[in-house]
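seq as requested:
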Amino acid sequence: MVRVRVLLTFLFISAWAIPLANAAPATCPSSGTYATLMGLNTAGGCTIDNLRFSNFTFVSTATGGATLVTPSDLAISGVVDSAPSAVGFGFAGIPMVALLGQTSDVTLGYTVAAASGGPIVTSAALTEAGQAIPDTGFASIDETLDSFALQTFFSSTLLQKPSDSVSFSGLASASASDHLHATGGIVGRGEITGFSNTFDEAEAPVPEPASVSLLACGLAVVVGGALRARRLRLSTGRMSPLSSGSLYQGKRWGQTPNSSRTS
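struct tokens:
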């Protein structure tokens, strides 16, 4: 019985501890910088609607005297929350400029995941704000989302592709990587001033059971088994005194049940 009480106590504590451990992180900030988002990594990231963004990374390089872009240079222009059609971030004020013989590159990454049992990611969209000045300036953003790819660019030949999108079957989570690149070339200028990255949601076909529900089912099984074992012990205990008493009486008088009947 003591073991059963210990097990029930453990399950009761777990029923409270698991929801606390799985508590959703804070809502993503609508202001601040990319450095702000990186600071949320230790807390599990942040959420916009039913999507969680986490594991923010940032790497920057510059050549030819171009100014090195830092995480604090990417100002959050706002969160995009038009669920379920568009959920994500917008960044502005990026001082990413490459002049004659210069290059500037930034690679940032993060994980986007649907809440357990919640919506799944079904598409992604990328929009770039920038310019490229003839003759050799170029600015582009290449994004990978697991095995999917998007690209936007501005070229010195006046060709441009400021937005791109891709659709796919639902993903519970995906790793996103955005590579921002600007080059001035021989006699040009490339510049990226901002971009936005959003994702579409759709309801998951089969929601995952809640942890508390699973614990409740397990608790019911344990309690039921304990009650059946208790009834069985009580039933056995009631029969034992009668049987032992009959044997005692027979031994006391030096008789067996058969000899007492014949005498």
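The helical segments are 2-21, 34-38, 211-252, 257-262.
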